[in-house]
Write a structure and sequence with these properties.
One of its GO terms (biological process) is regulation of cell shape. This is Rod shape-determining protein MreD. It is a multi-pass membrane protein. It is found in: Cell membrane. It is built from seven helices and no strands. It has 175 residues and is mostly helical. The protein has one domain. The longest helix has 30 residues. It is globular, with a radius of gyration of 18 Å.
């Protein structure tokens, strides 16, 4: 009682989450997909899919941030922004959300290293699926030159995405 009486006027004590807090995780995933619109030029595709990184970070941080079916519309938006064939991210992200739901039911506890390993597995599978799909479509994409650096940079960038998701989650819940 005393702390709330002495709090400053801008305090968010006992006010609950911010307005629109349910949509902030999805907006950060879309914003992560929009990072690919930056004018970064490279001969190989080493730039990680930040939409995927934010999706995995939010899902590992909070299983209740959104229902599993949100992966399909978010994957569609990612396909439209990034330039993937329509349906590739939809299928991959939906499968990842289902797999993460199964993992949540099977595991009792997870620490940071286990979550980083889970994220590394999902990032690697997504990049390999994108590489394989590009190869099936006739692109000349050697595995070591295209998918390898993207997997490495994506796995090493995941802690940044997890940190951003945690900070944004703290802000959106008013803590």
């Amino acid at each position: 009682m005393v702390r709330s009486a002495l709090a400053t006027q801008g305090s968010r004590l006992n006010q609950g989450p911010r307005t629109g807090a349910d949509y902030i995780p999805a907006a950060t995933v879309v914003f992560g997909s929009m990072i690919s619109l930056l004018p970064i030029v490279s001969a190989t595709g080493w730039w990680p899919d930040w939409g995927l990184l934010m999706l995995v970070a939010w899902r590992l941080l909070r299983a209740d941030a959104w229902p599993a079916w949100w992966a399909a519309p978010l994957g569609f938006v990612n396909d439209m922004i990034v330039g993937n064939p329509i349906g590739l991210s939809v299928a991959l992200w939906a499968a990842m959300m289902i797999a993460m739901d199964i993992l949540d039911r099977r595991t009792q506890w997870r620490d940071y290293w286990i979550e980083w390993g889970i994220a590394a597995l999902f990032i690697a599978l997504a990049e390999l699926a994108q590489w394989r799909f590009a190869a099936l479509m006739g692109a000349s994409v050697p595995l070591g030159v295209t998918a390898g650096p993207a997997i490495l940079v994506g796995v090493l960038s995941f802690p940044v995405a997890a940190f951003l998701a945690a900070r944004i989650d703290r802000w959106r819940l008013g803590r």
